[in-house]
Design a protein that fits this description.
23% of the residues lie in helices and 48% in strands. Strand 2 and strand 3 form a beta hairpin. The protein is built from 2 helices and 8 strands. This is Lipocalin-like domain-containing protein.
């Protein structure tokens, strides 16, 4: 009889430990939540395409709003600037942006622009985004707030 009570006591202790461990797991934020907070801030993307240089500054606000300023320099030296706004969301895998203003104007109801990128952090200050639909890979680096495109 003494052995069975010892086994029961050990099993009861294991149940208590398992319950405490499960509670600790539930209270720990998952990686997606941490990455969503890490995405907040100002990011720079610079690239060239057929002699045209593009510089994009993306500001992801904690409120879920984003602002994107773009500077395009043509091979001829001509410069164009664009400003876009909208809302953003991170689902733990993808950074999703819904544009509500494209160059200061609401987009056509027939062509509401969205951008979705699967995000991988190279470091806390750099991330790579992959758009699997359009087969595009982009790289952003963190920059100080107020950086110009």
């Amino acid at each position: 009889m003494r052995t069975s009570w010892s086994v029961i006591a050990i099993l009861a202790a294991l149940v208590v430990l398992a319950s405490a461990f499960q509670g600790a797991l539930r209270s720990t934020p998952d990686a997606g939540e941490d990455d969503g907070e890490l995405l907040q801030g100002t990011w720079l993307r610079e690239y060239s395409d057929q002699g045209t240089t593009i510089r994009r500054v993306l500001d992801l606000e904690p409120s879920g709003a984003f602002h994107e300023a773009v500077r395009v320099v043509q091979p001829s030296g001509g410069v164009a600037r664009f400003a876009h706004e909208g809302t953003w969301h991170y689902d733990g895998t993808n950074l999703k942006r819904h544009y509500t203003l494209v160059n200061g104007k609401p987009p056509s109801r027939l062509n509401v622009p969205f951008a979705t990128f699967q995000v991988t952090f190279d470091s806390p200050n750099e991330f790579t985004g992959v758009d699997h639909v359009h087969k595009v890979e982009v790289r952003y680096e963190r920059v100080p707030a107020g950086t110009e495109p």
